[in-house]
Amino acid sequence: MSLPPLAALRVFEAVARQMSFTHAADELGMTQAGVSYQIRILEERLGGSLFLRRPRGIELTELGRRLAGPTTDAFDLLRDTYAEPEGASALFTITTFQTFAALWLSERLGRFQSAHPELEVRLDVSDVLADFAREDFDVAIRHGAGKWPGVTVMHLFDVEFTPMISARLADRYNLREPADLLQLPLLDNEDENWINWMQAAGLSCPKMPNNLRLRLGAQLHEARSAMAGHGVALLTPRFFKAELASGLLVQPFPILARSGLAYWLAYPHGRRNRPAIRKFRAFLLDELSADAG
Question: 0.85 exceeded by the pTM?
Fold first, then answer.
């Protein structure tokens, strides 16, 4: 079967990405009637509807969903090929969540930009999962199982955690075994990873203390609270090497537990050959290698 008309595919990609005939028409410099005409041509060629018209907008049909991802990937590759010749100055945008940006990535991005002065690097920090089809980001660093539709992923490192406390609190309590931690206030003690760590430490059915009702929501804040002596935080050692080396934080036990999740670099399939993304992948691999050394 020969390809449908390129003009119709171009319109379909814009409508599917914007989920709006009006916005697609504005982007392409067409009238809404022209957009509707091209969609109708494509639907007739394919023998099925691509969109459902709803009172509050449009939705992709099953056929539309099946075709939208590969079509967007193909046009992403074309856009990148023609918009960013090798060596040209370009904007490179990264989105990630607060903890990873503050505790690992931001201190390293200066080295990446210095090594690639042709790139203008921008970091977006948000705990909302990025949607590449609707948001203008080149790459995302995500936390999870690594299974997201429509994207290529590269494993960075597994999620590991262990209790940490301030030196002052460590001096006050004589912590000889993991069970001794149950005497102390545990920050965010409803986090299921506390149970995971206790079990890894050999405590099969620990009774978690309920003496501190404090929910801070992110390792960045939990670490600050722990350094202030307010309790025990469950933290990722990779993120707090400087604090551990300086004594601001103490890791009472060498036991590490894992959640089964990891940190991943993610980007749309169609952008996998983009020069800036290849450079960022290589940079991350170098940083991770140095980090492990």
Answer: no
